[in-house]
């Protein structure tokens, strides 16, 4: 039994050593390999002192800076201190180490000089890139996707939110478990090819496979749980649809002021924070248009450039509030240096969740803090946008007018005499329809109103 192994070393020694050397050069404790699958479940990045690095492939220098500024805000939201940010101009990220190998060495020097414990890259890196860059800088390297997932994990508070985030984290980790395993299975393969016929599966491969299997079955369970948890919301939504209560959903880039606006409009008391992704769970509130029609307003998770698709997938049931709304209020942060690209990013996510067909009203918020030039540009870009400040209340009247205007209206004109014992019907007409006139006669209340077809059918016997 030892013979074939021995001969393998003889014949293929170099290749094997090379592979082993690659594996040995990993710095203990910094590895992205998981010691145990439970690490995926409870993995906390615990970023402390970070250096940011970006590759600037297209757009202006200002675009590149905005991107790193956003990465810094994300890192801070995740609880870390940003020590330094560097970027490199390249046609495309280096396939091996993301930044060029020379720059990677410089980065190592920055890491040493600043005492950083983590490098955060402004993009989604392949497992190989993460591994190879880690080998050069010798501290933990994570990408923007992992950072966003970490913020979501910290902010998730409901059972559903937690399950959704965990599902997203697992689907991010699954392909990344390969890291070490790849070289291990090559080793095992080599051994077999070398003529041993034994050890068709190396120890690494076996462990990776077990981990993968456990993660997959956990993901299946999470998907099932999430589907179950979404049913209450689906039921409520169906109820609204049945009663033909119009719904507006607030969407927008993270930190645009969505929750602030919901609070302003409905007094909902939703958490407002100068932090990215403060809101993860949807909040639905009832409100009324000025002409007294009831509608619902939903606040939901904010979007971001390149929102990790794992999150979009995991939050799909939550995002149905958006997909199935009658109207989208797209909140834009007018005080941001580049609101235009934020609008584009939001549209990209909306397209991804199939919500572009829902009518949209652009609401430029934070006009109290916005640069006049930016507002002019936005006015030109979106001529029918509404300009508001959730903070000062400025422009909210205009927004209410727009809601009056754009929320679907009842279609059927009716004139009915409702007996006094049918106060319930009077309330329904007021709640779901649009009352044009009310008179009182000896036999009851005469309403001239516009209502939805369902209610019109109920009212038919009372036509006057
Ligand atoms: N100056 C100014 N600041 C505002 C205005 N509206 C909201 N803010 C601030 O913007 C920050 C984000 O507000 P939120 O309402 O939490 O924003 P959000 O869009 O719900 O954010 P996420 O849920 O994290 O995606 C907070 O610090 C608010 O105080 C405004 O009209 N003017
Ligand atoms: Mg919010």
Descriptive report:
There is one protein chain. The protein is of the alpha/beta class and 464 residues long. The protein folds into 3 domains: 2-193, 3-Layer(aba) Sandwich (Rossmann fold); 244-406, Rossmann fold (3-Layer(aba) Sandwich); 412-462, no CATH class. It is 50% helix and 18% strand. The protein is built from 17 helices and 13 strands. It has helices at residues 2-24, 38-42, 61-77, 101-114, 127-137, 144-155, 159-176, 178-193, 203-242, 258-266, 309-314, 316-323, 339-352, 372-381, 396-406, 423-432, 453-459; strands at 49-56, 81-89, 118-121, 140-143, 247-252, 283-288, 294-299, 327-333, 360-365, 386-387, 412-419, 434-441, 444-451. The strands form 3 sheets. Strands 6-7-5-8-9-10 form a 6-stranded mixed β-sheet, with helices on both faces. Strands 2-1-3-4 form a 4-stranded parallel β-sheet, sandwiched between helices. Helix 5 (127-137) links the parallel strand 3 (118-121) and strand 4 (140-143). Helix 3 (61-77) runs parallel beside helix 6. The chain is elongated, with a radius of gyration of 29 Å. The termini are far apart. The relative contact order is 0.09. Mean pLDDT is 82; it is low at 1-45 and 179-197. The structure holds guanosine-5'-triphosphate and magnesium ion. The site of guanosine-5'-triphosphate (GTP) has 24 residues, from helix 10.
């Amino acid at each position: 039994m030892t013979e074939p192994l021995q001969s393998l070393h003889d014949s293929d020694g170099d290749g094997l050593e090379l592979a082993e050397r690659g594996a040995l050069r990993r710095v203990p404790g910094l590895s992205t390999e998981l010691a145990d699958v439970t690490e995926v479940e409870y993995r906390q990045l615990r970023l402390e002192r970070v250096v940011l690095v970006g590759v600037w492939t297209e757009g202006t220098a200002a675009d590149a800076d905005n991107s790193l500024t956003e990465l810094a805000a994300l890192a801070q939201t995740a609880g870390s201190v940003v020590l330094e940010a560097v970027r490199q101009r390249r046609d495309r990220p280096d396939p091996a180490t993301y930044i060029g190998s020379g720059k990677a060495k410089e980065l190592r020097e920055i890491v040493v000089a600043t005492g950083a414990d983590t490098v955060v890259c402004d993009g989604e890196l392949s497992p190989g890139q993460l591994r190879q860059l880690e080998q050069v800088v010798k501290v933990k390297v994570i990408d923007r996707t992992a950072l966003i997932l970490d913020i979501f994990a910290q902010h998730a508070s409901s059972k559903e939110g937690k399950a959704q985030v965990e599902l997203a984290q697992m689907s991010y980790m699954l392909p990344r478990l390969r890291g070490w395993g790849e070289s291990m299975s090559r080793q095992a393969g080599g051994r077999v090819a070398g003529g041993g016929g034994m050890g068709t599966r190396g120890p690494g491969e076996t462990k990776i496979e077990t981990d993968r299997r456990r993660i997959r079955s956990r993901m299946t369970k999470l998907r099932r749980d999430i589907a179950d948890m979404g049913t209450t919301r689906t039921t409520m939504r169906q109820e609204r649809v049945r009663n033909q209560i119009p719904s507006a959903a607030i969407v927008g880039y993270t930190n645009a002021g969505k929750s602030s606006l919901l609070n302003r409009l409905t007094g909902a008391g939703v958490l407002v924070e100068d932090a990215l992704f403060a809101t993860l769970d949807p909040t639905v509130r009832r409100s009324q248009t000025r002409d007294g029609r009831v509608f619902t307003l939903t606040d939901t998770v904010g979007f971001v450039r390149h929102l990790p698709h794992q999150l979009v997938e995991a939050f799909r049931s939550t995002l149905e509030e958006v997909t199935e709304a009658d109207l989208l209020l797209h909140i834009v942060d007018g005080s941001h240096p580049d609101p235009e690209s934020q609008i584009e990013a939001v549209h990209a996510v909306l397209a991804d969740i199939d919500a572009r067909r829902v009518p949209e009203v652009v609401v430029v918020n934070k006009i109290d803090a916005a640069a006049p030039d930016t507002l002019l540009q936005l006015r030109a870009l979106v001529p029918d946008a509404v300009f508001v400040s959730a903070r000062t209340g400025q422009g909210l009247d205009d927004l209410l007018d727009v809601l009056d205007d754009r929320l679907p209206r009842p279609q059927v004109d009716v004139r009915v005499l409702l007996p006094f014992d049918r106060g319930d019907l009077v309330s329904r007409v007021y709640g779901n329809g649009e009352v044009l006139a009310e008179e009182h006669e000896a036999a009851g209340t005469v309403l001239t109103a516009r209502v939805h077809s369902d209610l019109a059918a109920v009212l038919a016997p009372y036509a006057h």
